Amino acid sequence: MAEKKGAEDRRKARVRRAIRKAANGRPRLSVFRSSKQIYAQVIDDAEGHTVAAASTLEKDVRGSLKTGADVEAAKAVGKLVAERAAKAGITKVIFDRSGYLYHGRVKALADAAREGGLEF
Fold first, then answer.
1. Who's near 85: CB < 8 A, 6+ residues apart?
2. I need a labelling partner for 52 at 20 to 30 A (CA). Which of 7, 42, 91, 95 fits?
3. Which residues are bridge partners to 43 per DSSP?
4. 3-state secondary structure of 114
């Protein structure tokens, strides 16, 4: 028997559907935030693989942060994923906030990625 999708899953699918229509071949910068960590990855949907990724679980990021679940951690991850995407030759992306409100940690990650050189 199929499980019903929750409101969060429906919202995430709705956002992704709209993003894929608007992307025009650009990769997407996808964000996932949990209660303890934040993750970001640049995904090429045409090829179906991840081009660049960063999270607060990495040793070099984790060592410099008090916790992985605050705005400072999100800024560090945003800057790191932008640096890795630039190294892979990607400058223009479309932002996939995964159904989260554009506020707090999600906004901090996006602003740091813009400062790091990504355009969206």
1. 29, 42, 51, 52, 91, 93, 117, 118
2. 7
3. 28, 50
4. helix
The architecture CATH gives domain 25-115: 2-Layer Sandwich (3.30)
- Burial profile 42-59: b = 16 or more Cβ within 10 angstroms, e = fewer: bbbbeeeeebbbbbbeee
**DSSP state letters, 11-80:** HHHHHHHHHHHH-TT--EEEEEE-SS-EEEEEEETTTTEEEEEEETTSHHHHTT-S-SSSHHHHHHHHHH
If you average pLDDT over every residue of the chain, what do you get? 92
Mean pLDDT check: name the lowest of 61-65, 73-77, 83-87, 92-96: 61-65
- The arithmetic mean of pLDDT across residues 1-6, rounded, is 70
Which DSSP category does 102 fall into? S
Minimal CA–CA distance to 105: which of 77, 82, 83, 80?
77
pLDDT digit string, tens, across residues 57-71: 999 899 889 999 999
